[in-house]
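re: ur question from earlier - yeah i can do the single chain one, its not a big deal. heres the input i used so u can compare w yours
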Amino acid sequence: MIPERYGPHAYALMRIVFGLMFLTYGLQKFGLLGGQMAPLLSWPFGIAGIIETACGLLIALGVFTKPAAFVASGEMAAAYFLSHQFAIVNVGANVGGLPVQNGGIQAVLFCFGFLYIATRGSGIMSFEDAGS
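and the output i got, formated as tokens:
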């Protein structure tokens, strides 16, 4: 078992990794990291790319962490319902309503991970913590 005294460090690593992974999704929407370039202000991919890139970077660095994580959580909730849950009806594919069936696991995990980060804030190993 990991001693409880390492909890703040484990949380900081979780926040940093979640932020960096979210940042990579955003960068893909700008044609980087093997992604396809989306028009900058197009709905939903261009706007999603801006949110994912900006919020991912802010969360990883620990700057404006609570609002950035809250926005990221909301974007992932919208992404799940628009791209995974309702896509079943729109596309007509019979893939099922659960995230494991409709490819929405990543969106759900990001959504609830960021919701948790929005309640905890930046914690240690952040630029917000550096001034304390």
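Residues 4-121 form one domain. not sure if urs matches, ping me
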